[in-house]
Amino acid sequence: MSVKASVRALLEYNVPQEAPIKLNQNESPFDPPAELKAEILAALKAQAWNRYPSGDQEPLRRKIAEYTDFPSEGILTGCGSNELIQTLIQALCAAGDRVAVVNPGFSVYSRVATVLELDVNEIPLKKDFSFDVNRIAAAAADDKLVFLASPNNPTGTSLSPAEVEWLASRLKGTLVIDEAYYEFSQQSAQSLVSRSDRLLILRTFSKAWGLAGLRLGYLLGRPEIIPELRKAKLPFSLGLFPQLAGDILLNKVQWVQEAAQTIVAERERVFQALTSLPGIAPIPSDANFILFRTENLTAQQLFQRFREEGILLRCFDSPRLVDCLRVTVGRPEENEVFIKTLTSILRESGR
Length: 351
Ligand SMILES: Cc1ncc(COP(=O)(O)O)c(C=O)c1O
Description:
With about 350 residues, the chain is α/β, with parallel strands linked by helices.
């Protein structure tokens, strides 16, 4: 079979998924409570499975509109935000167009662009992993599509709404602010969308909402552009299960907010603990994970030692992250084990 060279050259998107303590995919450590799951399953059971699901997801979009305080006509739902990233690239880019991303950044943007044989413009973050807005404005001025995650994965660093506004005024292409971790940062560029038809906000239910397994994401944009973007999506890609689960979970916003608050408090506790450890330098984060530099052991050595202890962290191939690991904030007791394990690995390696 003649698979395209651009696809053959990619590595498979493989992330280890089994471990007693799993802190490697920025998921919520809190599974929705059993009574909530029962309610979702009862709603699913009451529906006809032999029929296609709602194509425009009107009830779900209305609920998201209430939660976000954004018009429902300006909302596009998708099978995880990953599907919406693909939809955007397919809808907006043609052969010869360039997609801009930052490095280090979330890999799916360039992955999809590469599969579609588009050029990718990788713009480095500053040394301290903050966004270099002047450099982005200059380097991406003519690019068709610019993806910036704020907070950024894997660094946890953010753009302020003022920086987003400034960038949007400089770029000619469409600027997508990926707010996958919005609930942990509470900072959004959403209010700018009504002023620009070239600014879009991407969000997900995979992080604070605890629904990574069901696949649900959404996009906020000016109402006139959403029907056009919808045309580039596969019909019925969003199944009945995530639609119903999202709809019901949106009645329990308080549960989600409390879970996010716990995670933010734990993030600060883990950050302080990391700061006090010799040879460990954490980067301040607005998300539910922390990237940290390791000075004495290599990131690979530390990753392997944690793996032997049953704890999965994330390490990276990127040259800029050779000395870095990312830890997702887990439940308090998991974070405790993480800190104790790191302390004892460092002590043991110092002997
Ligand atoms: C910045 C960012 N955007 C999008 C996603 C993908 O989210 P989803 O599960 O909604 O596809 C992730 C997942 O890690 C992410 O870090």
